[in-house]
Design goal:
heterodimer; A: 413 residues; alpha/beta; Aspartate Aminotransferase, domain 1; Aspartate Aminotransferase, domain 2; 7-stranded mixed sheet; 4-stranded antiparallel sheet; 15 strands; 41% helix; B: 131 residues; alpha+beta; Sufe protein. Chain: A; disordered C terminus
């Protein structure tokens, strides 16, 4: 059964209005420019979840009855879809998590505890959000390891000279975002991964913004771990994915213990289940997994090349339109290093005041530190106003943003 | 948009752009700062006390218009006030004085100066509110 819209194909001209018709939220008339926080969801995702709840609601991997078997089959189908989406070798390498944050925590506390020793080096970047900093800090503190951060330049791109110099020092782990959630910077993740691997490091890529906007081929990239969230790519909240190379996952101890992740339990010991079950204790988010499968279908139906090139055109349009607002600074690089995430600094107006005024114009943006406080300190701003785009964003929404920003400027002038 | 002018009333903007009693107070009896990690707003106050009266008060800080105007309004109100009366200032009064509708997401901004007063001047342990 296909949930794709037949009229949307990669080769057809990009029809944003047809796409928007799939998203019930847009009937509200609200300009939604906060997809980097969470995206809206198309009917196809909502329908898939509702169908599970209403037609074949049962636990997975438990029942010897047809309803449970159907639930299990649909639940596992998503794993194959995700494997194909990121081009993993096997479904055994696809672990269901709650979100990106849980994926990073899983790696830090299982692979990290087993492999990181006192004095080891962990390399991160200043543009990471807290999810890709704090788990490593906890690990480093426990093990006596060191963390070094790669800085950015004035255009919001990583200082690759620093990155390569740090990699030369033989870090145990190198973890970085494929795309910055604050600046929209598309990092040269292939080159960075190759350099880190050549130096013997294990590499984790935070794909929270990478998968939704530009996609990933984990085998071509050569990373060891790749984590992302479903709700930032049209799926529901509460479901995320951790990809790990099979040899690494096999060697790692489990993350949580409980039902579903065991082979045999005795009073004095337990044999763990094979991958991926070893890392999936307890009844999972079944409807959310099924919803994520529908989201993957939807995105592949539109096509990542089409999405990315549409977002590039939107970003170019936005840079042009925003340049008309006096005193407005866009922090972060222009296209082609930009994935549709613009951090704005309006002179003399605090981001929270900007956001409150924008809200009065029914324009939704994120204001604050974007869970990236070290980056805010680096940029020497208390926060920014972040407008982010996705496959359904229109130029009209960007125009409304510009009007609302002019109003903020007027009120505070 | 008339709605926006209503929200960011002229006197709120005036207190934001021309904060009253702004700066540090030499020889303060009490100094206290509070920080709102959610948005990075900072408000600090210095108090000089005399016979149970707040003889002088100044504030410093950085942040959004709501947090800074609220602090500025607070200092005007506190100057010359008996400490026991200052103790009685409630959240509702602070919000009333701001005179605008504060959305749930902005309550912490509006009440940051009250927290400084409570924790600093009253010496009360930080009461966690439920909002």
């Amino acid at each position: 059964m296909s949930t794709l819209r037949s009229e949307i194909t990669s080769s057809a001209p990009y029809d944003v209005e047809a796409i928007r018709k799939d998203f019930p939220f847009f009937e509200s008339g609200i300009a939604y420019l906060d997809s980097t926080s969470t995206t809206q969801r198309p009917r196809q995702v909502l329908d898939a979840m509702l169908e599970y709840f209403t037609r074949y609601n049962a636990n997975v991997h438990r029942g010897i009855y047809r309803t449970s078997m159907e639930a299990s089959a649909r639940y596992e189908e998503t794993r194959r879809k995700v494997r194909d989406l990121i081009n993993a070798k096997s479904v055994k390498e696809i672990i269901y998590t709650r979100n990106l944050t849980e994926g990073v925590n899983l790696v830090a506390s299982t692979w990290g505890r087993a492999n990181v020793r006192a004095g080891d080096l962990i390399v991160l970047t200043i543009m990471e959000h807290h999810s890709n900093i704090v788990p490593w800090q906890i690990l480093a503190e426990e093990k006596g390891a060191r963390i070094e951060y790669v800085d950015i330049d004035d255009s919001g791109q990583l200082r690759l000279d620093q990155f390569y110099a740090l990699v030369e020092r033989g870090p145990k782990m190198v973890a970085f975002a494929q795309v910055s959630n604050t600046l929209g910077t598309i990092n040269p993740y292939r080159e960075m991964t190759a350099a880190a691997k050549a130096a013997g490091a294990t590499v984790l890529i935070d794909g929270a913004q990478g998968v939704p906007h530009i996609g990933i081929d984990v085998r071509e990239t050569g990373c060891d771990f790749y984590a992302f969230s479903g709700h930032k790519m049209l799926g529901p909240t509460g479901i995320g994915i951790l990809y790990g190379r099979r040899e690494l996952l096999e060697a790692m101890p489990p993350y949580q213990g409980g039902g579903g992740q065991i082979r045999s339990v005795f009073l004095d010991h337990t044999d763990y289940a094979e991958l991926p079950d070893k890392f999936e204790a307890g009844t999972p988010a079944i409807a959310e997994v099924i919803g994520l499968g529908a989201a993957v279908d939807y995105l592949q139906g539109v096509g990542f090349d089409a999405i990315h090139s549409y977002e590039e055109r939107l970003s170019d349009y936005a840079f042009e339109a925003l340049s008309e607002v006096d005193g407005l600074r866009v922090i972060g690089p222009p296209t082609p290093q930009q994935a549709g995430v613009l951090s704005l600094d309006l002179k003399g107006v605090h981001p929270h005041d900007v956001s409150t005024i924008l809200d009065r114009h029914d324009v939704c943006v994120r204001a604050g530190h974007h869970c990236a406080m070290p980056l805010m300190h680096r940029l020497d701003v208390p926060g920014t106003t972040r407008a982010s785009f996705y496959l359904y964003t229109t130029r009209e929404e960007i125009d409304r943003l510009v009007v609302a920003l002019h109003d903020a400027k007027r009120i505070f002038s | 948009m008339a709605l926006d002018d209503q929200f960011y009333r002229e006197y709120i903007l005036d207190h934001y752009k021309n904060p009253r009693n702004f700066g540090r107070l030499e020889g303060a009896d009490i100094s206290h700062e509070e920080y709102n990690p959610l948005c990075g707003d900072l408000v600090g106050m210095d108090f000089r006390m005399q016979d149970g009266v707040i003889e002088d008060v100044r504030f410093h800080g950085r942040g959004c218009a709501i947090s800074q105007a609220s602090a500025s309004l607070m200092t005007e109100r506190l100057k010359g006030m008996r400490v026991e009366d200052a103790r009685m200032i409630s959240k509702e009064e602070v919000l009333d004085e701001l005179g605008i509708e504060i959305s749930p997401a902005r309550l912490k901004c509006a009440l940051l100066s009250l927290k400084v007063l409570k924790v600093g001047a009253y010496g009360l342990a930080g009461e966690e509110d439920d909002e």
